[in-house]
Every structure is written in structure tokens, then in C-alpha cells.
Amino acid sequence: MEDVWDVIVVGAGAAGLAQVRRLREDGMKVHGIEVAAGVGGTWYWNRYPGARCDVPSMDYSFQFDRELEEEWTWKERYAPQAEIFAYLNHVADRFDLRQEFSFGERVDSASFNEDANLWTTNTTVIETNEKKTYESRFLVLATGCLSKINEPQLEGQKDFKGNIYYTGRWPEEADIAGKRVGVIGTGSTAIQAIPMIAKEVSHLTVFQRTANYVIPARNRELTVDEVQSTKNSYPQRRAQQNNLPFALDINQNMKVFNDFTEEEYREEVAQRWEAGGFAFLGSCLDYIVNPEPQRITEEYVKERIADIVKDPRKREILTPKLPLVCKRMPLDTNYWETYNSDHVDLVSIADTPILRMTPNGIELEDGRQFNLDCLIFATGFDAMTGAVTSIDISGREGKKLAQEWKENGPTNYLGLCVSGYPNLFTITGPGSPSVASNMMFSIEQHTDYVADIVKMMKAKNLLSIEPELESQQKWTDMVTQIANATGFAQEGCKSWYLGSNIPGKKRQFMLYLGFDTYVKQCNDIAAGGYVGFKLA
């Protein structure tokens, strides 16, 4: 065991890199721990065909260093996994951050010593199985919102003779060329992967439970002029985006829905369809809270499905039944067009669920069998909480965080801290804007906020900080109330925003909607002497 660290940071994705850089800049004794062999976080693991970000690349980047903004050049409107991975490696090298991390090391448990006001973190070195222990005053979990994959276990899965792959842990040696392949899932990941997989395989069978609304990305190469123009305007651009609800410019129309005729609004939707990306969200000021513009958008998207998908059976299966705002809108490139290919089939497992896997493929409850050489699980993540609760975290009086969140949902304060777990911070955790915003902005806001707290506590010789239980409950209730004013949490919605994709997970909307208002609240809390926290 080393000497006591000021801060241990778990994770070497964008959040871990940003947190370690800032804490080191402040003169803190900080060390990072990462289970992967290198930096990158979710962009290290998610190497499936077609993987890319749905936030424009010029905005999905750090703003803490002007030279970094100038020297890195993005190539496409929406960056693919390889480019984002290269960017994060560049950041690690540019700021000499690798030396601050232990790689290939899994965090198994962490416990708070109340007498010493220290966190003890226990790890396992993957390659050697060596056990290690770290002590620190503060523990920061930069473990990612989409990092703990959902791994359904089907009856007979071990008997399958072919290969099984998970999109969230895509292996370099994956071989699907010329094979009969099945994909389970049609969420954001699958919508990116399926068109690319279809190009390689001899036959593709997609097993779909829920049809999704899909918005065209309109991805393309960036021109030299627009890249340079964006670089030149970064200071103003970043300042503007830091004051927007999604920390992203969605070309917000300043009219409310009632200012349009229905025909005018349909034209607005059509223009935004052609523009691609999340521009739909900006079609009118009250889009998120008004079901009428949502209804018209739903109708428009369904009309596009009817235009694109030729087979009536496939078209019916692909047409969504749930409200549009129930889920994050996936961005696609030729997703629906892919189903016009003769070698691509579509099966609704909402109508006829999977019974089991056989040695040769999949059998449905109605007896139909599908012979496969390879099965791909595109079944998403135990989002927001899974990477945290997979660590055995013990707080005051031996309280277990995983058990508390299982019973009560992920109650917290600011999406950053949990009562009963002093000096513990969760970066972009449940209860913060997180994935309902430009993640890079949320990451920097959180890592700076944590660094400011650590710096303040050292300056004032304080030993512990944690939320008051009442403040935590009020915050959690407020996050729910904001969500209930929109369509995101309405009855019937099933999404990973609510934890509905994980059996046994308590249903709770986990995102604070409104990056700009969230930042103001955080700043007001800090300016008031960290209102709602207990400091000792």
C-alpha cells in the first residue's frame, strides 16, 4: 500500500482524464485506476462496426485548453469511435497523464473509515491476480454512464456452437464476414451497427423487441473552411453552449407550437429532418413539454418509414408504437434502407419471444428456429448506475451503496454525492444532466466542481463533506418533477433513462433536464458555502 493519496480517481475515460489533469494542476496527490489496458473509457470498449458519437465532433471535445482546441482537427460531422479514441489518447499524451494511472486493474471494493476519514480502495491486477490497496481522502468515480454492459443470459446459451459477441465489448478478432448472423436489440447501438454488419454477412436476422424512432444523422466530411471557422469561434461558441439546455446548439426555434399552423410546423419538421441530428428538439420552444408537436413529429417519422421500407411486414414491425420522447432518438445512416436488402430479415420478439438458444441458433416460443453462425447482443447498458454498483462500496456504519440504490433508486445530491458516503463523488452520475447534455461539457463542469471542493476543504482543513439527507431527497424529487413535466417519464415509457431495460432495477428517471439551469444551481450552492452539504 502506498502513502495516503489526496484523491483516487476510478476510470480513464474522458471524465477520468479531465479529473486527474485538473487535480494535478491544483497540486493534489492524485492517482487513477483503470480496468482497461489504456485510456478511452467507453470509447476504448465500444469498437463495434459503425460506432460513433451522436454529438457533433467539433463540440464533443474539451474546452479547458485553447491550444488543444487548435491543434486537433476533426474529420467528420459525427466522429467515429476510432477518431474519438485517438483524440482521448492524444489528450493523455499531450498532458502526460498516463503516468498518473494504473492500467489493467479492476476496482473490487471501497470502504470509508470513519475514524480516519479515509477511503480504502481494493483492486485486482487483471493479468497477475495481484491484490492491491489504496488509501485516499477523497474517492472519485469517473466510471462512465454507458460502461457496464447488459448481458442477458438465454437458456441454452452455453450450448451454442457459434460465436457470441457483445457490442459493448467488441473483440478485435470478431469475424462475421460471410456468416449467418443474428443481432438481438434495435437501440442506438444496433441502429449504428446493423447497416455496417449487413454489408459483411451472408445473412442477417435482427430480433427486435421495441421499434424506435430514428433520425438521420446526415454525417459527412467536414470542410477545411468550416473546421477553421469553428476553431476561430470556439471561445464564443463554448460560452454560448454553456448557457443552453443541452449544452449544444440545436438551432432553437424561438416560437412556441401555437405560433405555427399545423402545416407550418410540418414544414419546420421536414426542414429539420433534412438537416439531421438533434435539430428536432429545437423545432419549437415547448417541444419537450407539449405533446402536440411531438405527435406531428411522430407522424412525420412514420411517413418516412412508409416511404423507405418496401416490405409491408418489415415496415409494420419497424413502425414505433411508443411516444417519440420515451427514448433518446438514435441517429442513423441507412438504417431503414438496410431492411430492403433480401439477405436482411426482421423478427418481432415482442410478439413471439425467444424461448432458448440451441446449438445451431435461436428458437422462438412459436417453434420457429433460426440457424446462425454468430449471435450479437446489442442489448445496451446498465446505464448511469451499473458501473458504480458493480463496486462493493461501503459508507458510514457499513452501509452498502448498491443495496441502497436497489431498494430506493439512485438518490443523491447534484448527481455528485450520496448521503452517508463522505468524500465520495460520482462524475455525471444519476441526478445530473449527464447524457441529456453534451457529455464533454457535463464532464468538465463536474470535474471542476469536484476539484474546487477538494481545494476548498484542504484550504480550510476540513475532513469530510457529504449531503444532508433532506437536501438529497429534495434534489431527487426535483429531478423527478422536472422529468414528469415532459414526455420522457410518462406511463408506458421504457428506457435506460428510467432503468427499465434492467430486470429488477427500480424505475426512476435519472437525468436532470436542463444543463444551463443545473450549472446555475450548482454555482449558487457553492457560492452559499455549499448549501445542503454537511462539512466537518
UniProtKB/TrEMBL annotation:
The keyword Flavoprotein applies. Keywords: FAD, Flavoprotein, Monooxygenase, NADP, Oxidoreductase. InterPro entries: FAD-binding_Monooxygenases, FAD/NAD-bd_sf. The keyword Oxidoreductase applies. One of its GO terms (molecular function) is monooxygenase activity. Gene3D superfamilies: FAD/NAD(P)-binding domain (3.50.50.60). Its cofactor is FAD. It comes from the Eukaryota. Pfam families: Pyr_redox_3 (PF13738). PANTHER family: L-ORNITHINE N(5)-MONOOXYGENASE-RELATED (PTHR43098:SF3). Belongs to the FAD-binding monooxygenase family. This is Cyclohexanone monooxygenase.
